[in-house]
């Protein structure tokens, strides 16, 4: 019958202040920080000679190579392993044997 009462001014001020802080934090997150806390400068992958040597040794040992097997044996991430295999395919060191919707299978050339 009486309806809802108006909220006090102090409560409304607090709510507005909290919303402004949330918005400010969201803007800071969007600005430059990634999930890992490091800024992403370039997507290019640089591979040192030691890692490249390890990868080539693993390819010679195995009859088939997938990005997952290469990543686990060489101690690198799967995305880096994919990029390495594509680069090696361009250099004709490995050959793409089969491509599925999820993964590629490579064989030594």
Automatic annotation (TrEMBL):
Is the Ribonucleoprotein keyword given for this protein? yes
Protein family: Belongs to the eukaryotic ribosomal protein eS25 family.
Its protein name is 30S ribosomal protein S25e
Superkingdom classification of source: Archaea
Against Pfam families, the record matches this protein to: Ribosomal_S25
UniProt xrefs under Gene3D superfamilies: 3.30.63.20
Taxonomy, top ranks, is: Archaea, Thermoproteota, Thermoprotei, Sulfolobales, Sulfolobaceae
- GO CC term, one of those recorded: ribonucleoprotein complex
Chain intervals with Basic and acidic residues compositional bias: 12-39
Which residues lie within the region annotated Disordered? 1-39
The UniProt keywords, alphabetically, are: Ribonucleoprotein, Ribosomal protein
Q: Decide whether keyword Ribosomal protein is in the record.
A: yes
């Amino acid at each position: 019958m009486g309806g809802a009462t108006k909220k006090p001014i102090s409560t409304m001020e607090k709510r507005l202040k909290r919303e402004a802080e949330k918005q400010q934090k969201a803007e800071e997150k969007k600005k430059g920080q990634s999930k890992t806390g490091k800024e992403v400068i370039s997507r290019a992958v640089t591979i040192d000679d030691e890692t490249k040597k390890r990868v080539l040794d693993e390819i010679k040992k195995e009859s088939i190579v997938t990005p997952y097997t290469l990543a686990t044996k060489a101690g690198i991430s799967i995305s880096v392993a994919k990029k390495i295999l594509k680069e090696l395919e361009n250099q004709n060191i490995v050959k793409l044997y089969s491509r599925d919707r999820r993964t590629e299978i490579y064989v030594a050339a």
